[in-house]
Sequence to fold (318 residues):
Amino acid sequence: MTDTMLTDAAERMFADLCDKAMLDAAEDGAFPSALWNTVAESGFHQLAMPDSGVSLGDAFAVVGIAGRHALPLPLAETLLANRWLAGSDGLATIGQVQDGWIVDAPWGRAADRILGLDAERGACVVVELGEGVQVREGANLAGEPRDAVALPDGAEWLPLLEPAYAYLALARAVASAGCLARVLELTLQYAGEREQFGRAISRFQAIQHSLAVMAGEVAAAGRAADAAVDALDGDRLELEVAVAKARVGEAAGVVAEIAHQVHGAMGFTHEHQLHHFTRRAWAWRDEFGNETHWQRRLGRHLAAGGADGLWAFIATRG
Fold:
């Protein structure tokens, strides 16, 4: 399957299945089992496996499409967990180990297994969900489940052979870029349809300026995310992830603000779908490091390289 065939298939599936009713139900805690079964039957949850026949970059492209449709599943986590746990199948999710718990695990309550990541020690631990496993339910700003699972006694730690934290941060950046593209699309549509003083508000200069700012931010976010995906096989991955996560996070604030300004009161209602995307953009900017976290990491690296290193970094970027 070519990358275009893959992304077209994902676009069709997610567009057909992810409607507002499903997003509302997921926010109320109802796991979308039918959606998961369809995704799993299509093999999307195993795209990042080394023997899948699909490049890791193409797998991340599907994550971006999932973000564009606010897919209420831990697709990125399942992709990466199944990659790192060779031979794993089913619904897997990933959280971070903290004080004897695996915290902030998307849909931990519904997963078959949870991978707990300790980035500092470069290791992970796997917990199989079942009787006796303690789960604390939670949610992020967008209402997406972010659960905590207690680490069992004697849990076995496994080494991480890839930069897991960077991969997960990249997944959030890619999904956020897709989400922001959808926010822009909704805003352009609304501005073209909403009339004021006898003409569409998109014809007013102030609105046109705001839409142009939005479009620029979305384009910059998408390009930064694409550059990081292109660096997956190189030695500059973490630097490009730092740029992408920081730039997408900055764009999230600007794009969401303008989108709600253009939509006015309508955009703040629960009945409108805009909030499902803007709240995800706000929530995802803080997951796996916000823009300040990644800007500091990037700044420290570039400062250590001196003027020559800084110029080399700038001059060799695509």
The chain has a mean pLDDT of 94. Residues 186 and 303 are 40 Å apart (CA to CA). Strands lie at 92-98, 101-106, 113-118, 123-128, 135-136, 146-150, 157-159, 195-196, 199-200. Residues 3-159 form one domain.
